[in-house]
Design brief:
The protein is an alpha+beta fold. The chain has helices at residues 6-30, 36-98, 102-116, 162-169, 186-193, 226-289, 293-333, 340-348; strands spanning 121-127, 133-140, 155-157, 173-175, 198-206, 209-218. A hairpin with a 5-residue loop joins β1 (121-127) and β2.
Amino acid sequence: MNLRHPRGAVIGIWVLVLIFAIVQLIAWTALGGTSRRSVVVVQFVMAWFVILVLTVVATRRIGGLAQTIRQHERARTATLDQVEQLEMRNAILQIISRSVDVPLAFQALAQRIVRLVPCDRVGLALLSDDGQEFQTYTARVNQVERRSRPRPDVVFKTDRTAIGSVVRSREPLIIGETRTYAADFLDVNVLRSAGLESALILPLLAKGRAVGTLNVVSRQTNAFDQAHVDALLPIAEIFAVAYVAQQLQVAVGKYRTMEAMSELTLSISAEINSALQTIIGHCDLLERGYPDPNLQRDLATVVRQAQRITSLLERMRAAAQDRLKEMADAVNQGGIPSSPEAYGKAETR
């Protein structure tokens, strides 16, 4: 009998009851001449036998149902975790779509991160453009400690810091006890001084380049494991892409400003150069028409200064074009398309 199926279990129980009824009937007819006490004993034994069998059947059935419930509960929990991660990613994308401000998005999503990975504080360390130091932000998950907007807490160098080590290795770091790392890393020593006992540090990777770290810390020792790493890795990837997008947006803004200034410089320099050429031409005419030595000396001075200004304008135009080319190269290296055709090629890659 397959006890995992309710219908089979019910049929089995009714079969046992029918057998018990048949045995009882046979006992009453076959043992009619014996004492009624013997019949009662036989019925008592058979009744206990049926009860024990039913107990075993019910126990196994309940065990099967409990196992099935546990399996469904595990599947439900896994589904809820996946839904929570999807909601987290969707929230990050919605916030970033409204404003590419990674520290602000980080502060807004701190409570969601805590639901994925229980902790006392969530930290974000963003690498500077020169790659020499980190600007760190802390989101306190306690409602009393929360800030309306994150502000930079501490600036750490990449040397002798756990976040710097994670950026160099590009691998997550689980710190079970901060006291074991406090002597080697300055940032872990700061955590230890604040009463935080364990930490999890994940790199922010975008296109194979580490741009910072996402950190969660706890006042309990050994609070984090590989499951927490797996839960936060997709979030760290989105933060990395968002930070790179923020940097590229700043670069594009600088490029557009520089482009406008360069165009204005070139336009003004062309107008000034045109006026200077007119001045030089008139000075040449005056020099030919009036042979006065004093006048010719003054005209020569005017021509020299006009030529000097022309030379300065040429240097300004060259510098503006060079700077504009540098900004364009930086934007191109960042993967920002410069035309609709280039955007189409970027999409197909």
